[in-house]
Q: What sequence folds into this?
């Protein structure tokens, strides 16, 4: 990573909730590491389209600020438009429901990163293999090394794009309900309902006789096995 | 709701993974009911911006197909552009990590709805109050009725927009790892790690002496208290 300090440009500077803006690049990288799904925004057919997608991050990748990798079918409708424009990738984790004494101050605790930039199609074979391994490892750390290498046919069917992490901003809300002076005169309960993602026990496919790998058990436990 | 059948237009018809397309409008409404966060896509400054946001749905709302409500500060940067263009609202829930014998078939189980349309600014006072109550109740069913009504000042600070649910599509992936004929010749574990969102025990604010309301306890339990 180029710097510990996030340097949002005017277009990644939040217009609202500036007090929720996070300046520490380590927190951005931690969020990108925690989250499993990104939402990709592209303009296609004259209107925005937002699609959920897996992703991976290489802080030492060749793009300015590090590389955020997305992959998809070479036939995906979003791919060609995405390569001809700036795109936006947003990653959000929900951390809690915030219940105040007024509806106005009801809120959610969350962490959200917004990355804007011109994507680069990854054509170098080694980088493509590495990016696809990173996408697998993002979901299940250590998994890629246990799998056979991607075949030529698989690689031919899969497009990989890289987005520079240079132009990124992060917002975060933590804590309990915001309190207006007048709220103390109100009655009623106020508080926080923390939420988080958990995994339940891995389910083995019928055709598999191998035991559940240690790294899968560990990941499920890390995600807070319910 | 106008129909049980989803009728995607060309721009909401997925170009890939058509086998994952969901045709039943009840499943769309169930996903919109389950999810807590939407991702709003607008074009602002010549590029797409994707922002996480709370939302609510009124299946019997005045818009074609029912109404999806978003709210925000009247000073939010996305608001003015959003009212002059078609926007996209995407709602995604992650249900599992799918681990195959090949990297290529690694995937995630998810449900995702994509709604595209021209938003309408909600100006009618009654509808605005109702929409804001629905946003609170979406997060915490039954909560709005226990709160004081929004003040004029709060209403003046809050914009509400409605998106018709007419042009919506939904995709879903369920089940275990996809199996290519050749995968049976491979070795190694394959399976599913189910994931879901859970709540932990509500945390009461220091200044509150009331007990945690029954509806908050019920909601936390419904979300699968960990």
A:
């Amino acid at each position: 990573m180029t710097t510990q300090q996030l340097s949002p440009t005017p277009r990644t500077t939040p217009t609202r909730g500036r007090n929720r803006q996070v300046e520490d690049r380590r927190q951005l990288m931690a969020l990108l590491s925690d989250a499993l799904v990104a939402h990709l925004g592209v303009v296609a057919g004259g209107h925005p389209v937002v699609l959920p997608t897996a992703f991976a991050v290489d802080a030492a990748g060749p793009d300015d600020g590090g590389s955020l990798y997305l992959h998809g079918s070479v036939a995906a409708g979003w791919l060609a438009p995405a390569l001809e424009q700036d795109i936006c990738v947003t990653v959000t984790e929900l951390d809690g429901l915030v219940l105040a004494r007024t509806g106005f101050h009801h809120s959610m605790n969350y962490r959200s990163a917004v990355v804007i930039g011109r994507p680069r199609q990854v054509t170098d074979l080694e980088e493509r293999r590495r990016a696809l391994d990173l996408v697998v490892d993002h979901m299940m750390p250590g998994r890629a090394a246990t799998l056979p290498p991607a075949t030529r046919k698989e690689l031919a069917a899969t497009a990989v794009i890289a987005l520079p992490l240079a132009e990124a901003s992060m917002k975060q809300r933590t804590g309990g309900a915001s309190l207006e002076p007048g709220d103390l005169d109100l009655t009623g309960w106020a508080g926080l309902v923390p939420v988080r993602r958990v995994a339940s026990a891995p389910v083995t496919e019928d055709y598999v006789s191998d035991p559940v790998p240690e790294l899968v058990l560990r990941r499920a436990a890390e995600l807070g096995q319910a």
In short: The two ends of chain A are 35 Å apart (CA to CA). The first helix of chain A runs from residue 25 to 34. The mean pLDDT of chain A is 91. Chain A touches chain B through 100 residues (CB under 8 Å).
